[in-house]
Specification:
The chain has helices at about 10-15, 60-75, 115-130, 145-155, 160-175, 215-225, 235-250, 255-280, 295-305, and strands at about 25-30, 35-45, 45-50, 80, 90-95, 95-100, 185, 195-200, 200-205, 210-215. By secondary structure, the protein is α+β, with helices and mostly antiparallel strands. Strands 1, 2, 3, 4, 5 and 6 form a 6-stranded antiparallel β-sheet that branches. Strand 2 (about 35-45) and strand 3 form a beta hairpin.
């Protein structure tokens, strides 16, 4: 989370009059992250996050926010938007669409423990199952077509070896029948800093900016590439198995999903390598901004490309 658009006290008070959540007591900008403008908001009714969306269309926001409400109503532990007095989940603030989200209690655990890996694996399965009757669809905004387009935009920033590595993965992606893989609503960005833990419990999953409809196994790969690695970015077998065993207690993986997982781990690394390289090459202007280094995922992509088999799974 970052701050690209400032909000003063008069603007905030006017916006809050749309809601039945009381008067503001504290309002603080959040300076980490790279996508939206976020503020911690405390009122005399509770604790919230005010988010101003910097690049999403109304259709995308409608999907993201209604998906969160849909999941929360089905018991998934996740961030939940507050409806205003008209029943809308977002409206305009300082020329940006904005929403108020109920703040999840807890903190990021870095690194997550094996017990927390089990909790998030189980919750991701519940997420996938709960989204099965969500009736809205959003194509993956950072899927294969996006990867190809961004690769072309970043050619001047890529050496020959990196270009060849990217091309190899994009070619490999054509070898799998994506339409045969189970799909539905996914989070698509479930890093460990997008989940909060309150003591021994999972407080909830947050940051649905890239939530979309895509194959479930890609969602699992994104999680494994962040939650289940050592300092050298290699997958840790017992952590991987902990996540998958917890997931499969709620939703069994099909044979084709198991076969596709190594390639999905490779493509997930590529997706975040390209997105972070893009953010570095074409940064947004803002009051407080934070851009993550792409090198970690370049290195991870190299490892996943050279070590496709997943032993022990």
């Amino acid at each position: 989370m970052s701050v690209y658009t400032s909000v003063d006290s008069e603007q905030l008070d006017g916006f809050l009059r749309r809601y039945d959540i009381g008067k503001a007591l504290a309002f603080t900008p959040v300076a980490t992250g790279i996508t939206n403008s976020n503020y911690m908001l405390e009122t005399d009714h509770g604790r919230y996050v005010l988010t101003l969306y910097e690049h999403h269309s109304d259709d995308e926001l409608d999907y993201m926010l209604r998906l969160q409400r849909h999941l929360a109503e089905r018991g998934v532990r996740c961030s939940q938007p507050v409806a205003d007095r008209r029943g809308d989940f977002f409206s305009s603030l300082n020329q940006r669409p904005a929403a108020i989200i109920i703040r999840i209690e807890g903190e990021v655990r870095n690194p997550p423990t094996e017990e927390q890996c089990a909790l998030i694996g189980a919750e991701l399965a519940r997420f996938h199952l709960a989204g099965s009757d969500f009736d809205q669809v959003r194509d993956n905004p950072r899927g294969l077509d996006w990867m190809v387009a961004v690769r072309d935009m970043l050619i001047e920033y890529l050496g020959e070896e990196d270009q060849q590595a990217i091309e190899s993965s994009l070619v490999a992606a054509q070898t799998i029948d994506l339409e045969a893989l189970p799909r539905g609503a996914i989070h698509a960005d479930l890093f460990h800093d997008n989940a909060l833990f309150d003591g021994a419990e999972l407080g909830g999953i947050l940051d649905f900016d890239y939530a979309c409809n895509d194959v479930f196994v890609f969602d699992i790969a994104v999680l494994l590439n962040d939650w289940c690695i050592d300092a050298q970015l290699r997958l840790v077998g017992n952590r991987v198995n902990t996540v998958l065993e917890a997931y499969c207690k709620h939703r069994s993986l099909t044979g084709i999903e198991v076969e596709a997982l190594p390639l999905m781990l490779r493509l997930a690394a590529l997706r975040f390598w390209l997105s972070r390289l893009y953010d570095k090459a074409f940064p947004l202007s803002g009051e407080l901004t934070y851009t993550k280094c792409p090198d970690t995922f370049r290195d991870m992509h190299r490892i996943r490309s050279s070590q496709m088999p997943l032993g022990g799974i």
